[in-house]
Every structure is written in structure tokens, then in C-alpha cells.
Amino acid sequence: MELLKSDFYYDLPEELIAQTPIEPRSASRMMCVDRATGAVSHDHFYNLCRYLKKGDLLVMNDSRVIPARLYGEKIGNGTFIEFLLLEQKGDKKWEIICRPGKKAKVGTRFSFGGGRLVAEVLEVKDDGNRIVQFECEGNFFTALEDVGQMPLPPYITEKLENKERYQTVYSRELGSAAAPTAGLHFTPEMLGELRAQGINTAFVTLHVGLGTFRPVKEENVLDHKMHSEHYHLPKETADLINETKKNGGRVIAVGTTTCRTLESVTTFYGDISEREGYTDIFIYPSYEFKCIDGLITNFHLPESTLIMLVSAFMGYDNTMNAYKTAVEERYRFFSFGDCMCIL
Question: Is the pTM of this model over 0.90?
């Protein structure tokens, strides 16, 4: 089977790319799609309860975005440098992208926030990424909160006034370089309302890497290599999923990161149980889903691995029709945009 990148292209007017979050969070529009028929209806996120049943389970990614963008200077001559933290490799040791790269040779030291954080380059990797060792007084993440900035996606050009608006209200496990954006629509009040109606909630952790924004370069989709991300499926979540399935409830993934965590575990291990590791699972049409029964997700970039995942879940024709409708109905797209509920 040949699957072409261009099959997943759609024309998106630039003004539909959401630049700022909507207030309140739950006021986002929600396109509801029947997975079996492709039928589309329109609602708002605050009415999500209407589409769920007692005994259903929402599984969410509780990863928290770190302010991973750092601006600083080379110690000695004050040359400007920008770091983007990708993945923790040890105590205060990180893999990073930096620019200008030619300034960051092994042994070079950099200062951020007037010396609040200091970093030394330990290694230059084949792909140009660096391994750096940070030094600071006290807790590294506290220092990072003080001097780092949110690594907003490249298509967002507006300044974010409130850092917390790029975090879900249930974020707690530090480690993501980008937000699991499908969860941005939930408010604490809504979560309480869902639970009061007998709709359960559970959490997984998948630390979102910047590879999530990496474009598919190969025209044959199957040649694309996915980035690897760290995940944890806790025992209490595994137990809730198994109980939900046994009782005839639906397991609904909030976001593609949650979906990839659950499908990774069932694909690699054959069941749902507590697991921790790295996944580079690539879900595209022809994939057979083994865990999830529903998906809440934002609208994704043309030709991205994320629109391919959605196509695998609700069918290629249904997906392209839903996106065409979303453009015609002027939905807001990408991280701060509106969402789809696919059941």
C-alpha cells in the first residue's frame, strides 16, 4: 500500500490559525463526528457531557510543559545564544537544540538570566543537537520557571500573556516541550461536572517532544521516521481502562498523545497494564486500534503525522470531509484552536 504525504493536504487560510486562547477555555467550538458514518454536527466544548455516557472513561495526558526556550549569552564574549530544551538525560543534563549552532562547541559555557542558569556543552550529536550540563543554585526547574519562556509552536506569533494558558488545568508531570493541546479546553468545573455524571477520568503521562511539529518530508508516508517520546501508564489507569471495557463503557483518549500511549502499550504488550518506556509508534490509515473507542483532538496541520492518526481512527474520507467542513465553517485551527469529538 502506498500512502502519499500529499493525500493529507488541505488548504487552510492563514487567518484560521488561532493565535490566542479563547476565554473561558471550555467556550471552544467542538465538531462532533460519527466515526461510523462520518456525519458531522457542531456544538461547544462545554456541552461535552451530552455526548458521553455514565461508565465512559476519559483518559488524559497530565504532562506539564516546561518553559524550555532560553535566551542567554556565551560566557567570555557575550555572544547571543538561544537554547530549546528537548529531553532530560540526567541530573541537570539535557539534550537541546541551539542557535547559532557554530557558537556552541564542546566545552563552551553559556549564561542565562544573569547567571541564574549556566550551561556547558558536553557533546555535539550527529544531528546537530547538543548535550549540555546545567548548573544552578537550588532546584533546576525553579530556575527554569524564572528565566525560561514557553516554547510556543512556530505558527503562533502572538505573545502569550499568561503562561498557564499553554498548560492543561490537570498538568503535573514536568517534561513536555509542547502542550498536549486537546486538554486545553477543560476547566476544573467541567471535570467536576463530568465526574458527577458518572463519567470517569484517568491519566497517563507522555512528554511531548518538539518532533511533534516536525514535518513529514518523505512523499511516501511509510518512509517517515517518528521521534521517540517517554510515556508512563500507571496501574490505577490501567485498572480503570480494563474495568471500563469489562463493563461495556467507552475509553476516550483526550489528545493524540494519550492515544499513542494507550495504543503503544496494547500494540507492544498485547494488554493494558502498568508500563513505562519510550514510544515512536506511527499511526496511519490501515492501523487497527486496540484500546480507544473515542478521540478528542484539535485540528492538525496539513500533511502532519497527527492528521494521519485521525484518518486512521475515523477513516480517510471522513477526515478530509470533516477538515473541509471545518475550513468552510471557519473553525479555529491548531494549538489554541477548536476541537473535534470523534465517537
Answer: yes
